[in-house]
Amino acid sequence: MSTTMSAPDHHLVEGLDQPLQVLAEDGTRHADAVLDPHLGDVDEALLTDLFVDMSVLRALDDEAVALQRKGELGLWPPLRGQEAAQIGLGRTLPATDFLFTSYRENGLAWCRGVTPQEMLAVWRGTALSGWDPYQRHMATPQVIIAAQTLHAVGYAMATRAQGGSEIAVACFGDGALSQGDLHEAMVFAASFGAPVLFFCQNNQYAISEPVTVQSPVPIALRPTGFGIPVLRVDGNDVLAVRAASRLAAQRIRSGEGPVFLEAVTYRLGPHTTSDDPTRYRDEEELARWRRRCPVLRLQRHLEQLGAPVDSLREEVTIRADAATAGLRAAIDQLAPPAPDSLFEHVYTTEDTALSRQREQWRAFEASLAPEKPEQSPGSPS
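RE: above sequence
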């Protein structure tokens, strides 16, 4: 096998100097030659659906944080601020495209019909993974940074070999650009023209490390070194993400090989509920990104169109209340698993080594049971 790698090429990036954008911060819609051809289906009804989606998703995320603070969940990775990126992608690609995500893409899981029980099980510690990947066309969340990118490329190559038309989507944050797995994935994807979309939510921090320290050059330039074209969009603009997702998928499906989509966004909350972001970023920066809130931006656009925003917000409240109630109810339905269920689903067919470990566990568990008092002769049994 021989491979040829290209040098970084600015011409392979669209939106390098300024992320591609359709909606300004004040909600004003403006023209964009790259994105506009892929927004022909946008009308007030669609905008309303996207607004409801993002608003309900934010309520769900806030509720999960509250559940963690009450001790109902061991941990939660908030996505507040990244609603446009996840809804923009999740509501655009067909459900047959296969998603390989990190742990923060609960918005994409919600778009794929993942139930509250399935979403919370891992974070409550009652399951090792939450759902059937083939039923949702979405792999269960990957905690190891960037490992899912290799899975996505392998799946994409297999899909193409079998003649399928669906694409694979590898979702990750900007911190994944510092991991070898992602670079290996891009080498294989570029070398074999794999039908995979690399979807990066650049939320500005890899835990506490700012992206400016992680990458001395714009991260959008890195994929060009592998010969992979890049679309760099405003990740707080749901229409920009929607159009770029559609454009990227179209190019990939036509056989042009992988595409890298960078959604420039911001994590308004902590990395996880164990993090304290006040230790590494200031209030001025936070305030600047709050003004770019993706939900508020779309609301302003709807107001400019004359949409009935007040009644829409009432609908959002009803939908959000129902969704968060479902999340709270799910907690009560997640029963602790039997201890030896740890050994289930490890292999399709259990081997002798695993069976031996199961029996050793059972013996250990039995040894912990309180001893029964010895009965004296003649006492009733």
